[in-house]
Amino acid sequence: MKIIINSQIIIQNPSNEIKQFCKNNLIIKNPEIQKKQMMGFWTGNVVKTLKMFSINDGNYILPIGEIDNIWKLHPVKKDYIIDFGKHDKLNFPQNKMKLYDYQEEAVSKMIKVKRGILSSKCGSGKSIMLLEIIRRIGYKSLIICEKKEIQLQFKDYLVNCFGMKNGDYGLISEGNIEIGKFVTIALRQTLAKVDLTPYKYEFGVIAVDERTKCWRLSYQMYSIF
User: Fold this and answer.
1) pTM for the whole thing?
2) Which residues contact 207 (CB under 8 A, 6 or more apart)?
């Protein structure tokens, strides 16, 4: 068995244990069904489950976020091939906004664990915390969000707090793709409709706003990023 790690996990000749893990953990109930049922809508035409992995010529392809679980199932270092591409550190503009103590603590912890979910109450400044995390990591980054107003909010923060200009940041929306030097803010709806293959190695950091809507990302997006 060989396990290739890049923007996704490609498992060649997977063991029965890994196949069973995918079946038990990566096929989930579609949350849209419960939402529609609570609103009294018909759900007969809604897909009942979402499959978070695919099979291609016998190879199992999983989201990169499952790497810790795969390692627990198969902790044999020689069987892993790392293919992340090369990302250079960028000289990000400084943040003019001083973080509160609780924000500083959250930022430091997120950088330490390298990936995860930043959960904080409404109005606590999650957006500025995310941008500060990106600045400190220093890699070209992609932020995926659900609504245009959230996209513009991130843009305003980059302009007003980091002093970025058009070109330093980029926007992906309404079919237009502009990649920024430091940060690109994309609407999920546009990403789901375009070929993302050319951008496979473009970003060193991927962040998704509004985690409750992450399930709407198409599998192609999971596969590329």
Assistant:
1) 0.72
2) 130, 133, 134, 141, 142, 143, 144
